[in-house]
């Protein structure tokens, strides 16, 4: 594999360095919050994690020059890995599932990425477990293949140190971090760096309804990106002061509201992050609230921003305007926006109140 096409380090210098947007007050009455606009960086938010995981593996001798990188993804990490791996001289195989949007498949094909498409969900572990099962088969057949394992690889979180630096270069103080949680990587990386400067930082995790991460039962989920049907080790439970679960109807309403008001648009996680960041800014008007908008709108033009698609799924029918409060993460199964101030590792039952 040659690296000369883009110069010695390919597109790596163009990753990150994203702008911070001020999202002003809306009709719900919040005072506004800051959002890191990750769609403005080459390869998107996950290119940061991808570079950290690949360079870390190369340094440890786990990834040989020119070796194939194999990863399971719902899309965003795939784009980041494609950019990072191309720049570093590695071919990529991505394990995706049937629900990956046609536009994303076309983009991966254009990037020269080999896609392995999983057609059936695992009965308990959903698409994620089905993709991981296929990944194990592929790893066994491709000599020297390297699996970054975004769910459990500490380099995923370490890849967000630069994002934290960019935030603190822009703001002298951050009081509240609102972060969507999938692998847990960006929340863990940002929390570690931001709490070093401000130990009292409050951290609010944003999960999807039907996700197992914070102790709810795993269900089929409409939303992609945030949420998980497995328990990633990159979720640092003691970091969180509270968790919110957001449903697809609220995420759609929030995406559309932010887009209409600012012309900034993104996907499910952007809508969920904006909803909860707005809530946090309303709850504490003096606090400086920061969140991350992980990706842009293009992947979602035929779903979140398509009236017919949303109507067919009942996503305009009932939208919560405030979270239902629950006393314990597994007390009741939530079906829409909910909040819990007790965060527990479902695997270890560690508690932080
Ligand atoms: C679009 C999108 N938003 C948010 C997340 C959650 O980020 P993290 O994996 O760092 O928890 C992901 C993870 O895949 C994602 O793809």
Name some characteristics of this structure.
Rossmann fold, single chain, binds pyridoxal-5'-phosphate, eight-stranded mixed beta sheet, 2 domains, 353 residues, alpha/beta
Describe the structure.
The chain has 353 residues and is α/β, with parallel strands linked by helices. Strand 4 (92-97), helix 3 (102-110) and strand 5 (114-118) form a beta-alpha-beta unit. It has helices spanning 46-59, 76-88, 102-110, 126-141, 154-158, 161-170, 185-197, 248-262, 268-283, 307-312, and strands at 20-23, 33-37, 69-72, 92-97, 114-118, 176-180, 202-208, 242-246, 289-293, 324-325, 338-340, 343-344, 351-352. It has two domains: 3-42 and 155-352, Rossmann fold (3-Layer(aba) Sandwich), CATH 3.40.50; 46-153, Rossmann fold (3-Layer(aba) Sandwich), CATH 3.40.50. Helix 1 (46-59) packs across helix 2. The strands form three sheets. It has an eight-stranded mixed beta sheet, with helices on both faces. The chain has a three-stranded parallel beta sheet with strand order 3-4-5. Bound molecules: pyridoxal-5'-phosphate. Pyridoxal-5'-phosphate (PLP) is lined by residues 76-77, 180-187, 225-226, 267, 269, 294-295. Pyridoxal-5'-phosphate binds at residues 76-77, 180-187, 225-226, 267, 269, 294-295.
């Amino acid at each position: 594999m040659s690296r000369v096409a883009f110069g010695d380090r390919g597109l790596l210098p163009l990753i990150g360095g994203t702008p911070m947007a001020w999202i002003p007050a809306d009709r719900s009455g919040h005072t506004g919050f800051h959002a890191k606009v990750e769609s403005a960086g080459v390869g998107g938010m996950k290119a940061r994690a991808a570079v950290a995981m690949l360079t870390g593996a190369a340094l440890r001798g786990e990834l040989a020059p020119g070796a194939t990188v194999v990863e399971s993804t719902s899309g965003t990490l795939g784009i980041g890995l494609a950019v990072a791996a191309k720049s570093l001289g590695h071919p990529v195989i991505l394990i995706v599932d049937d629900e990956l949007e046609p536009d994303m498949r076309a983009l991966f094909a254009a990037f020269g990425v080999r896609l392995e498409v999983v057609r059936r969900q695992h009965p308990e572990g959903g698409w994620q477990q089905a993709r991981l099962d296929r990944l194990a088969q592929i790893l066994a057949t491709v000599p020297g293949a390297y699996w970054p394992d975004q769910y459990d690889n500490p380099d995923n979180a370490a890849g967000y140190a630069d994002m934290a630096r960019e935030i603190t270069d822009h703001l002298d103080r951050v009081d509240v971090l609102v972060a969507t949680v999938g692998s847990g990587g960006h929340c863990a990386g940002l929390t570690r760096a931001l709490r070093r400067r401000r130990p009292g930082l409050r951290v609010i995790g944003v999960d999807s309804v039907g996700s197992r991460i914070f102790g709810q039962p795993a269900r089929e989920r409409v939303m992609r990106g945030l949420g998980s049907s497995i328990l990633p080790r990159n979720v640092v439970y003691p970091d969180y002061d509270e968790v919110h679960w957001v449903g697809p109807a609220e995420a759609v309403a929030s995406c559309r509201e932010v887009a209409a008001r600012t012309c900034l648009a993104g996907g499910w996680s952007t809508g969920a992050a904006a909803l909860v960041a707005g809530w946090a800014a309303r709850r504490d008007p003096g606090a400086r609230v920061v969140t991350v908008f992980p990706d842009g709108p293009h992947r979602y033009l035929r779903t979140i921003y398509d009236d017919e698609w949303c109507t067919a799924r009942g996503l305009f029918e009932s939208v919560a305007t405030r979270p239902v409060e629950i006393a314990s993460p597994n007390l009741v199964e939530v079906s829409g926006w909910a909040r819990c101030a007790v965060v527990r590792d479902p695997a270890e039952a560690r508690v932080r109140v």
